[in-house]
Amino acid sequence: MIPFPEINPVAIEIGPLKVHWYGLMYLLAFALVWILGRYRIKKGMIDLTQQRFEDLIFYGVLGVILGGRLGYILFYQPAFYLSHPLEIFSIWDGGMSFHGGLLGVLLAMYLFGRKEGKTFFEVADFIAPLVPLGLACGRLGNFINGELWGRPADVPWAMIFPGAGNIPRHPSQIYQMLLEGILLFIILWFFSGKKRPVGQVSAVFLMGYGVFRFIAEYTREPDRYLGFLALGFSMGQWLSIPMILAGIWLYISSAKKQTDQ
């Protein structure tokens, strides 16, 4: 067992102003998307100006924050937020759903594509490889907050998380950072480096994230207000299954369309 590095969730405090690590992780995530996106534009991977790309990031930021928060409220704790409506705005305390954020980003990309005269999957294929490192930042923020801890474990790197009882647990946030963040980024970055049928990069993202999240959920403690659902799966696993199936369908259909052309 190794000790949990109890980091103050407030990174900077100046009088009444408090800047949380969780918020800084989101800023870092969007900065990485901006840097990687500019690089891909320079490489000619999409016909888009830098200014229009920054507009797309703005759309995406709104999609992530609004979709992620609404997704968490609706998927995980609707009753709590119905009785504590002011808590909806306390995003610095955590409580964001990836699946809700994904839906928000999908809507943002659709609206941006319509405005720019591009298909949805042209935009999605460009954005998909930029996302995983941002996800890694979010999981690191979860770890610093000491939230979303893992199930009881006897591995040498198990940790006792504050608020989780005196039980060593998997640092599942780190597992998710490595799988859904860094490993998925490497796969998508190299896969998208060659010309692919439209939709296939998005398909690999859906399949990759869905599979890695499904696996990581086996080490993550299910939300106490939900517990295990049908077949012993967590909510995160059930939300990942449609992603995997959609990714498989999209990959096959996009390959078939190219063959038929």
Structural account:
Keywords: Cell membrane, Membrane, Transferase, Transmembrane, Transmembrane helix. A 1,2-diacyl-sn-glycero-3-phospho-(1'-sn-glycerol) binds at residue 139. GO terms for molecular function: phosphatidylglycerol-prolipoprotein diacylglyceryl transferase activity. By secondary structure, this protein is mostly helical. It has nine helices and two strands. It has helices spanning 21-42, 50-75, 78-83, 98-116, 120-127, 132-145, 172-191, 200-216, 235-260, and strands at residues 10-14, 17-20. The chain has a two-stranded antiparallel sheet. Helix 1 runs antiparallel to helix 6 (132-145), helix 4 (98-116) packs across helix 5 and helix 8 (200-216) runs antiparallel to helix 9. The N and C termini lie far apart (57 Å).
